[in-house]
# Entry
Amino acid sequence: MKVNQYYMKRKEFLKKAVKGSSFSVLGLSSLAKANQKPKEVEKLGYNHLPNKEYKTMNTILHKASTRGDANHGWLQSKHTFSFANYHNPERMHFGVLRVLNDDVVAPGMGFGTHPHQNMEIISIPMEGDLEHKDSMGNTAVIKSGDIQILSAGTGITHSEYNKNKDEKVKFLQIWIFPNQKNTTPRYDQITLTTEERKNKIQQVLSPDPEDAGVWIHQDAWFSMTNLDKGKSLKYELKNAERNGVYAFVLKGDATINKQALNKRDGFGIWDVDHLDIKADTDTELLLMEVPMN
# Structure
């Protein structure tokens, strides 16, 4: 297919997304309106049913196969929570964790310029090179080992493209509701030393600019770990009274607090002060500790 045909597909996709009443993959008018009402953030709640497999009331299990599936040709995306045309009232968010998209973008393709407002947007590339441009004048490329934060605040526009013409780019797109509205927009990215997560916890995000990783306007902490088969470790919550943890299996198989998990499964847990983690195979995990209400 010719490049101009791909361009028209992206243009039509943008128009459809912006006009739709549901959340758009490209930054949404309905979300911008919702974000103008501070009380909506205060009333987030849990918004999910308890895990039926692990008989307690403080966990939620999202198997990889139950995620929303969107295939736009140039973009393939799996949605853990309701997003764009995937709407599940039982899967709107986990506390302030609003979006967890597992995106694959075709060579040379990407998201055209689109707006965001009052949202903390984290991108974690898994494979390939993702090029970013925004209205603040930033131009950057992120790749595996990097983590990027776009704090939209009062409003920002940006684009994201697969920089390479011969390979796909795979990345996680994560949205967090902020604890402050209408802040000054901000962009940052860092390159992590992935050896520091070998069989131990590596913090990659926090609410403190002086702490390890990138920082956001929310009392949230993200950590990553690469565990060899048979290895175990414990994750201690930073704020056990208020926060829960959403664990996402990037690779391999693991058991967390007695729950067996496989690749791309999501497991949310709250009302605990720590997680007991064991790698059943060589495993890579993302742990997202977030306020639950």
Summary: The helical segments are 3-19, 29-35, 38-42.
